[in-house]
Write a structure and sequence with these properties.
Elements (H helix, E strand, L loop, with lengths): L1 E5 L4 E10 L4 H14 L2 E12 L1 H6 L7 E4 L1 H9 L7 E3 L2 H16 L3 H8 L7
Amino acid sequence: MTVLPSPPAHAGVVEVRGEVDSASARLLADRIAHARLWFDSVVVDLSGVTFFSAAGIDALPTDVPLRLVCSPAVLKVLATCGMVDHWELHRSVFLALAAEVAMDFTATSAIPERTLRAAGDHRGAS
């Protein structure tokens, strides 16, 4: 399991490969907690997970926003346990990070004057 910084700079990716079972679930929980210390937003890339036990669900916090990229094995367990709605699910790390950028853009473009100036509407107003 690795933790990687990704653009935007305040987002981190926890990349997981192989099996997540009762022996490795604690490591996953620790890596997510560590990433939450350093990054405002965390994406957990589970696309390379071949086996995901119910213990893996306990490693995923539900009290903080978390974006997941799931392999079919992970998605099957989440759906079977009725946990799909607890996290944001994305098809790829790229799309999960893009969702973060889209949210940032809408938050920063809320000033109408700057939006009009950027669009060139100020030229016609005399």
